[in-house]
Design brief:
Elements (H helix, E strand, L loop, with lengths): L1 H10 L4 H11 L3 H10 L11 E6 L2 H6 L1 H12 L15 E2 L5 E6 L11 E3 L2 E3 L7 H6 L1 H5 L2 H4 L28 H6 L4 H6 L4 H11 L11 H6 L9 E7 L9 H7 L1 H15 L1 E8 L4 H16 L15 E6 L9 H8 L14 H4 L6 E5 H13 L1 H5 L2 E2 L2 E2 L1 E8 L5 E6 L5 H8 L9 E5 L8 E2 L3 E7 L5 E7 L7 H6 L8 E6 L4 H15 L5 H18 L7 H12 L7 H15 L1 H6 L16 H5 L12 H6 L6
This protein binds flavin mononucleotide, iron/sulfur cluster and FE2/S2 (inorganic) cluster (FES).
Length: 637
């Protein structure tokens, strides 16, 4: 993959000749290169325009005008606009003069500054949909505008915040230089850690109760304890910086603003796990983050914080930055490992391929999220028990919650886990809804999390002062923002990405946007996921276009039910949960869009032509099926 990135950076695309050349150099078959180039969305087989623009089409951006950004760009550069206004993927389109090309891409991990686009490698935030083209034409001025460079944390912490990870970020005098980090006591915990025994550090992490911040919320100490202290094979540590879950945008920020905090967390973890090699797998769309990390690594090396004989401890560790290339599934830990090995990011089946047993190069491997690894430094500083006093039992510490969507002040908030309720987060921290709007629903943990409806009542078990448990009934506003409460409410805390939806939102439209994401991102290994995600998207798409049939909500649910639990990786659940929950919680809206009689209209390619011609069976166009688009208005191929 590094070679493919290099080639594309130099030549703009990876054509047939390039693939042959690369294959020959590596001693591979050309098909092995082709499968990579076609798997990873960032790699292109055809030349783009001189300026290539990637417009985010995912939910928070779509709600803020991302599709209008695309329209504006297409109109200004004389590019045929995408066939509809629903933000569906289309191939890269180049303007006639070859100067510009545009492409819809998935969540760029900056949902709080939606809508966003990338012009070349530069991220543009808070893009004005009506003048997006001007921004591209006058890039220099746009980059220096406050919207593009503003740091949402340059204001003091909200009184409900408790900052550990964000302690320094946003301070006026704060920079990413190692000298600045050292002035603030940086790398003191690494110095302390290398004098401790490995098991002491692992025990501290266990006692802290730290749960992974990447999505699953698995106990970090327990995961680490799967690595044997006398392990003979090489142990690897992987920092998961793939951050692709729609609604999540914290890891990029940590990397950009405080790379040494992450690096210190990684190095302490390497020492504790006896891992001499660590990789930071960073999303391909974070080129700046990759450069910042590489610089930080070199700075740390000059101080002997990494490399050989770290701080005279006899311990050696190297950290490498590895760029992904646009595939969401490479955030899943085994997909990530395959990708790191230079293959397509096809998740591995568990068991037997639990990373801690058979991970990178079939060696024991720990995969942890960026935020999780940052906490390690604070656990060493505070001690496990002290850290565990933050938050709630089984939900300890702080976590960064990312709020986007229909709120007045979207952004990042570091809270003590469970010390803030959903209502406090939305109304007090994120400024509440826009004037005149009411809360309709919340997706609380990234787009994979089941949606919570504003009118619902949730039955949660709560621990009383004396330790006894009682069941309480809560409104959405009263749900504590912690792992267990959100699970009990029927959803999950996931990656901490909270997407707020107000009463102006059409839930079929929202689900269709989410379904397009999953249909595009399924790796395709498992039939239920590959076919089901696309099928669900085709149904919601059809419903939006007025072609929904009465069976559709039921069919959607059946498809979701038949994906979840029947796939190699948890992407299956991630793509089924939105559909299952939206259809269940907003039945009237789905029924209103599903009015046509059964049997469902079938796509013409599955229907005998005579039936269509004799109009014995109703048909509606299937959106974006190339065969159908060529078929013309009458609907026969
Ligand atoms: C489809 C899918 C996508 C994922 N994407 C990410 C991601 O972008 N970043 C991340 O840290 N974890 C992601 N995860 C979770 C990882 O598989 C893994 O659990 C996590 O990196 C472990 O780190 P943690 O224990 O520190 O949370 C994803 C999981 C799935 C199923
Ligand atoms: S569940 Fe989906 S993403 Fe995961 S391995 Fe199967 S096809 Fe790939
Ligand atoms: S950056 Fe566009 S939805 Fe996340």
């Amino acid at each position: 993959m590094p070679l493919l990135h290099l080639w594309q950076e130099h030549f703009g695309f990876i054509g047939d000749d390039a693939m042959l050349w690369i294959a020959t150099k590596l001693g591979w078959q050309p098909i092995n290169i082709l499968e990579l180039v076609t798997f990873y969305p960032m790699f292109r087989q055809h030349p783009p325009g001189k300026t290539h623009i990637r417009v985010c089409r995912t939910l928070s951006c779509a709600m803020a005008g991302g599709f209008e950004v695309m329209e504006n760009l297409c109109t200004a550069f004389g590019i045929p606009p995408p066939p509809d206004r629903e933000g569906l993927h289309n191939p890269i389109t180049v303007s006639a003069d070859g100067n510009y090309s545009v492409e819809f891409v998935e969540c760029l991990a900056s949902c709080h500054t939606a809508p966003v686009c990338m012009v070349g490698e530069q991220l543009h935030e808070n893009v004005d949909p009506t003048s997006a083209a001007d921004l591209v034409r006058h890039r220099q001025s746009a980059r220096s505008s406050p919207a593009a460079t503003g740091n949402p944390h340059s204001h003091p912490p909200h009184p409900l915040e408790h900052r550990l990870i964000f302690q320094n970020i946003g301070r006026p005098d704060w920079t990413t230089d190692i000298d600045c980090y050292l002035r603030d006591g940086g790398y003191e915990q690494l110095k302390q850690a290398v004098t401790m025994s490995r098991s002491d550090i692992v025990n501290k992490v266990k006692n802290s109760g730290l749960r992974g911040r990447g999505g699953a919320g698995f106990s970090c100490g327990l995961k680490w304890s799967f690595i044997k202290l006398d392990e003979k094979r090489p142990v690897y540590l992987i920092c998961n910086a793939d951050e692709s879950e729609p609604g999540t945008f914290k890891d990029r920020y940590i990397i950009h603003e405080d790379p040494h905090q992450l690096l210190e967390g990684i190095l302490i973890s390497c020492y504790a796990l006896n891992a001499r090699t660590a990789y930071v797998y960073i999303r391909g769309e974070f080129p700046k983050g990759a450069k910042i990390l590489e610089r930080a690594i070199e700075e740390a090396r000059t101080h002997n914080f990494l490399g050989k004989n770290i701080l005279g401890s006899g311990f050696d560790a190297e950290v490498y930055v590895h760029r992904g290339a646009g595939a969401y599934i490479c955030g899943e830990e085994t997909g990530l490992i395959e990708s790191l090995e230079g293959k397509r990011g096809y998740p591995r089946i568990k068991p037997p391929y639990f990373p801690a047993v058979l991970g990178l190069y079939m060696c024991p491997t720990i995969v942890n999220n960026v935020e999780t690894l940052c906490h390690i430094k604070h656990i060493v500083a505070m001690g496990g028990a002290e850290y565990a006093r933050l938050g709630r039992p089984n939900n300890t510490g702080t976590r960064i919650v990312c709020v986007s969507g229909d709120v007045q002040r979207p952004g990042y908030f570091e809270i003590e886990v469970g010390a803030v309720t959903m209502g406090q987060l939305i109304y007090e921290m994120a400024g509440g809804l826009k004037p005149g709007r009411k809360l309709k629903a919340v997706i609380p943990g990234g787009s994979s999390a089941k949606v919570l409806c504003a009118d619902e009542r949730f039955k949660l078990k709560q621990r009383q002062a004396g330790g006894s448990m009682i069941e309480v009934e809560l409104s959405i506003d009263d749900i504590p923002m912690d792992f267990d409460s959100l699970t009990a409410a029927g959803s999950m805390a996931g990656s901490g990405g909270v997407i707020v939806l107000d009463d102006f939102r059409d839930m079929v439209w929202v689900l269709n946007n989410i379904n397009e994401f999953y249909a595009h991102e399924s790796c395709g290994q498992c039939t239920p996921c590959r076919e089901g995600s696309l099928w669900m998207k085709k149904i919601t798409d059809r419903m939006l276009r007025g072609g929904g049939v009465v069976e559709d909500p039921k069919t959607l649910k059946t498809i979701g039910d038949n994906i979840a639990g029947r796939t190699i990786c948890a992407f299956g659940e991630a793509c089924a949960w939105p559909t299952q929950s939206f259809v269940e919680k907003f039945p009237e809206e789905f029924a209103a869009r599903a009015q046509k009689p059964v049997p469902p209209p079938l796509p013409p390619e599955y229907t005998p032509e005579e039936l269509i011609e004799e109009e014995l069976i109703p048909t509606v166009p299937m959106a974006h099926d190339p065969g159908w688009e060529k078929a013309g208005a009458k609907g026969t191929i």
